[in-house]
């Protein structure tokens, strides 16, 4: 770290100044009384964009999406333990995605904690399961240095969750000292001792190069394509990817399927697997009489680089060692567009309509769960775009992550695809989209149920589920009216059920330059 600045200020001012000095200039916020001095500091310290969320899960999910598109953390501002608890679900998703987030969590004044006021809680205990780094500032004099350490932790590859707890008296007391820019940690080196084994493993069609994390950038996928062309190995990514570059002119990579039976069939041929930024494939859940490990029995797995390592360096070294540096990459996609479908919308023609609508350089935030399983092959020849998945499996990620992506990339169009059940977890996102005038087109797949759980009943061995069981998976009685909800929060919306209607709504929405919602009745 560099030397600290010596300008006297209160603790909140030293915190804001330190965050700005280290490139953290966006705060997704839902403040309360204990955070008012931070709020006040924003009035007279220029440079921090503060974006209000009406629920903390929106704030934490937006910070996740922001990091994925910028590679630098945003901060959140959360009110005490209950406010942090409201944001835990999307912090879990951010942690699994390898996203860097700096949480600023207000706490009671140190003299007030012992009184056990109604909002008193074990904030460190709440934060720890979803954080890599947790710290409470004990003195106004250390707030700036603590903030710098939080940023440094958040920037540790591939990205970490840092939670800084700020008692209100350390925020309002004078004597704060801002800290200057820190030295950011470099990624860990890849495991060079495994390079020879990795080269030997990738020899023919019964071998697989499995990628995740930053191995899925356009440049790294091109290197992987060269390796595949030279060695004959297959390429796959993990089922859920924080960020995947796709589209015409890029190397296409399929994903390990989510449904366990399909995943087992896809992975069965591979006797040898090399991992770069990915974990060995496992099932999302345990199922009766089905394996949790998805690779074939006896498969040899070589880990060349874990998620926090230098994945580009690992791919470059593997490419050179395989003699593939001058080889043209395999699996480069040519531009292709599905035929224009007509009639009632179903899952097959929905994929075609979305593929036709994806804009050049668009960002697709995917929380489509059951509705979206056909999207990958249908959209691979679309214009170049970025695809973001839910990496933690906790629903309610899609619309908040779209906010973060739109704030990070105001020059790019964002398309958010989510089911009606998932979207209800963070429906407050629509209000923030309207308030910030974000260029986001939200597609709500309204199948009026938690459709994925209908399939999971069968997967776990439940046969002939009765009406009470099915009723718990239904979103009817009453039916959700997404057009009405969206309008109430300031976002224009339409409802469609025919292909021609959806095509027109997508064109209008993407051209509007602001937030809009399309409820797609399935």
TrEMBL record:
Family: Belongs to the TPP enzyme family.
UniProt cross-references to PROSITE patterns, sorted A to Z: TPP_ENZYMES
Pfam families: TPP_enzyme_C, TPP_enzyme_N
CDD domains reported in the protein's UniProt record: TPP_BFDC, TPP_PYR_POX_like
The organism's place on the tree of life at top rank: Bacteria
Domain Thiamine pyrophosphate enzyme N-terminal TPP-binding, chain residue ranges per copy: 9-114
An example molecular function term from Gene Ontology annotations: magnesium ion binding
Gene3D superfamilies from the UniProt entry: 3.40.50.970
Transferase recorded as keyword: yes
InterPro entries xrefs: THDP-binding (IPR029061), Thiamin_PyroP_enz_TPP-bd_dom (IPR012001), TPP-bd_CS (IPR000399), TPP_enz (IPR045229), TPP_enzyme_TPP-bd (IPR011766)
Keywords: Thiamine pyrophosphate, Transferase
Source species of the chain: Sulfitobacter guttiformis
Signal peptide start-end: none
SUPFAM superfamilies: Thiamin diphosphate-binding fold (THDP-binding)
Entry's Gene Ontology BP terms: small molecule metabolic process
Full protein name: Acetolactate synthase-1/2/3 large subunit
Entry keyword annotation includes Transferase: yes
Chain ranges of the Thiamine pyrophosphate enzyme TPP-binding domain: 383-520
């Amino acid at each position: 770290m560099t030397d600290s600045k010596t300008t006297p200020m209160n603790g909140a001012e030293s915190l804001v100044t330190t965050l700005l000095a280290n490139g953290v200039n966006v705060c997704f916020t839902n403040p309360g009384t204990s955070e008012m001095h931070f709020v006040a500091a924003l009035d007279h310290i220029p440079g921090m964009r503060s974006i209000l969320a009406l629920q903390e899960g929106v704030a934490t999910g937006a910070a996740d999406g922001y990091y994925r598109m910028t590679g630098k953390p945003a901060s959140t501002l959360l009110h005490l333990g209950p406010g942090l608890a409201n944001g835990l679900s999307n912090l879990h998703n951010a942690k699994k995605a390898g996203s860097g987030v700096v949480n600023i969590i207000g706490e009671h004044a140190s003299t007030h904690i012992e009184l056990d006021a109604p909002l008193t809680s074990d904030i460190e205990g709440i934060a720890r399961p979803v954080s890599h780094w947790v710290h409470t500032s004990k003195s106004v004099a250390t707030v700036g240095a603590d903030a710098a350490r939080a940023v440094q932790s958040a920037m540790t590859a591939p990205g970490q969750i840092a939670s800084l707890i700020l008692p209100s008296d350390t925020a309002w007391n004078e004597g704060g000292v801002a800290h200057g820019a820190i030295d950011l940690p470099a990624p860990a080196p890849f495991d060079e001792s495994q390079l020879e084994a990795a080269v030997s493993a990738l020899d023919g069609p019964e071998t697989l190069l499995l990628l995740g994390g930053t191995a899925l950038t356009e440049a790294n996928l091109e290197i992987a394509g060269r390796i595949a062309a030279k060695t004959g190995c297959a390429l796959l990514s993990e089922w859920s990817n924080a960020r995947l570059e796709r589209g015409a002119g890029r190397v296409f990579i399929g994903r390990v399927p989510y449904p366990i039976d399909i995943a087992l069939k896809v992975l069965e041929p591979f006797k040898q697997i090399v991992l770069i930024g990915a974990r060995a494939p496992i099932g999302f859940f345990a199922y009766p009489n089905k394996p949790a490990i998805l690779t074939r029995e006896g498969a040899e797995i070589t880990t060349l680089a874990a998620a926090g390592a230098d994945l580009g360096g690992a791919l470059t070294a593997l490419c050179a060692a395989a003699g593939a540096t001058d080889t043209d990459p395999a699996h480069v996609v040519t531009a292709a567009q599905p035929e224009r479908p007509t009639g009632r919308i179903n899952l097959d023609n929905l994929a075609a309509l979305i593929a036709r609508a994806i804009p050049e350089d668009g960002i697709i935030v995917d929380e489509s769960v059951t509705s979206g399983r056909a999207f990958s092959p249908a959209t691979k020849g679309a214009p170049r775009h970025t695809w973001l998945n839910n990496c933690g499996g906790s629903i309610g990620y899609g619309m908040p992550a779209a906010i973060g992506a739109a704030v990070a990339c105001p020059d790019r169009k964002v398309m958010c695809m989510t089911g009606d059940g998932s979207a209800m977890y963070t429906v407050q996102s629509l209000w923030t989209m309207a308030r910030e005038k974000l260029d986001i087109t939200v597609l709500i797949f309204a199948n009026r149920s938690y459709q994925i759980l209908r399939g999971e009943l069968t997967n776990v061995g439940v046969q002939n589920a009765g009406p009470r069981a099915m009723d718990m998976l239904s979103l009817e009685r009453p039916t959700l009216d997404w057009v009405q909800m969206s309008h109430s929060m300031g976002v224009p919306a339409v409802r469609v059920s025919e292909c021609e209607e959806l095509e027109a709504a997508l064109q209008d929405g993407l051209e509007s330059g602001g937030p809009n919602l399309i409820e797609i009745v399935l």
